[in-house]
């Protein structure tokens, strides 16, 4: 929940992303080739990073290029992250622009998360006036609580506001999620989670994950997902 990792590597703790009407629920990481990166040392918990990725398109210096920056803070019970990313399309005059801000604060066995992100995808296909932009913002509030040393409960509420071109009105989505994690070891967890998406104003989102996109729900309906399994990190 909240913003995770560095915006420089386009690391996003989802469900802060949307693919074909599906709210993703797993982290996705993208890398930028031919990039130049500066990362500052930590000073009183603060660090700053900047990155520029060369586009590599012959005769067009800016085509396919990427610029991003991030400010991170971690000290004591508090963390804070803010980042910006701009990527220009290498083939046409489109672009992706996104920024986000968020953080968390630990209170005993509990931690509260707060985040806000804004994403624009613009694609021009021909004349400059023919432009289609996918535009949405996501605000989320979450919390985790360590019940006992091996068990953690998490909860999250989220609102997505879709103001993309071509919509008759803003399409809003409300998401509520609950989860329980039990640690078998430092690398392996058992988990169970439930989430529901309440669609409004003609929206038809459902929930998915990194390897399964699912299908869109019926407009203005409520989509529900229940998952359980084992997760191992290496």
UniProtKB/TrEMBL annotation:
Listed SUPFAM superfamilies: Porins
Location in the cell: Cell outer membrane
GO biological process: monoatomic ion transport
CDD domains: gram_neg_porins
Coiled coil: none
Signal peptide extent: none
Subunit annotation: Homotrimer.
Full protein name: Outer membrane porin, OmpC family
Record organism: Paraburkholderia piptadeniae
């Amino acid at each position: 929940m909240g913003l995770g990792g560095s915006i420089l590597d386009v690391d996003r703790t989802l469900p802060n992303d949307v693919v074909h009407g599906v709210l993703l629920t797993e982290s996705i990481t993208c890398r930028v080739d031919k990039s130049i990166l500066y990362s500052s040392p930590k000073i009183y918990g603060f660090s700053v990073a900047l990155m520029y990725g060369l586009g590599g398109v012959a005769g067009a210096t800016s085509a396919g290029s990427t610029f991003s920056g991030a400010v991170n803070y971690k000290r004591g019970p508090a963390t804070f992250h803010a980042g910006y990313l701009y990527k220009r399309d290498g083939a046409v005059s489109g672009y992706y622009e996104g920024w986000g801000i968020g953080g968390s604060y630990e209170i005993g066995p509990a931690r509260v998360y707060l985040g806000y992100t804004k994403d624009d995808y613009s694609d021009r296909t021909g004349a400059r006036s023919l432009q289609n932009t996918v535009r949405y913002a996501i605000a989320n509030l979450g919390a985790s609580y360590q019940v006992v040393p091996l068990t953690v409960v998490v909860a999250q509420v989220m609102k997505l506001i879709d103001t993309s071109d071509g919509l008759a009105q803003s399409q809003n989505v409300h998401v509520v999620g609950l989860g329980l994690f039990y640690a078998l070891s430092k690398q392996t967890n058992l988990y169970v989670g439930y989430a529901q998406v309440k669609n409004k104003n003609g929206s038809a989102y459902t929930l998915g994950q990194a390897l399964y996109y699912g299908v869109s729900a019926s407009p203005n309906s409520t989509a529900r997902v229940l998952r359980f399994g084992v997760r191992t990190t290496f």
